[in-house]
Write a structure and sequence with these properties.
The chain is mainly alpha-helical. The chain has four helices and no strands. The two termini are about 20 Å apart.
């Protein structure tokens, strides 16, 4: 059982860190389009949320193996959200809104779904 927890922690950490790196690169690329086209604030928030959810889903699907995958994926999603918020807070200032609870739920949901899909698609 000890090996399970170590493997689960490594899988969760890899998925979360990869998702945060994806957030950073995709936000940097998106910033170029923001400067060029100047979309509205709501559009920027929506695109940022889509990028977060996509990154959490994809990297949970890639790194989380089966065996309580739903719980590991949810943990990876929430961890990625907290790490991403911390990194973006250090770069551009921390701003916590009332929708942060919804973001936590969405991150957990997309992490769990990604891990579940990855577990079903992977042949072990």
């Amino acid at each position: 059982m000890e090996g399970f927890w170590k493997r689960a922690a490594i899988e969760t950490a890899l998925a979360a860190l990869s998702a945060v790196i994806f957030f950073l690169f995709s936000a940097a690329i998106f910033a170029v389009f923001v400067r060029a086209y100047a979309p509205s604030g709501g559009t920027i928030t929506l695109i940022g949320q889509i990028l977060k959810c996509a990154g959490i889903f994809v990297f949970s699907m890639i790194f989380i193996k089966s065996g309580r995958a739903v719980f590991k994926g949810a943990a990876a999603g929430v961890l990625a959200l907290f790490l991403g918020t911390l990194v973006f807070g250090l770069i551009g200032g921390f701003r916590l809104t009332a929708f942060f609870l919804l973001e936590i739920l969405l991150s957990a949901l997309f992490g769990a779904l990604g891990a579940l899909c990855g577990g079903k698609l992977r042949k072990e």
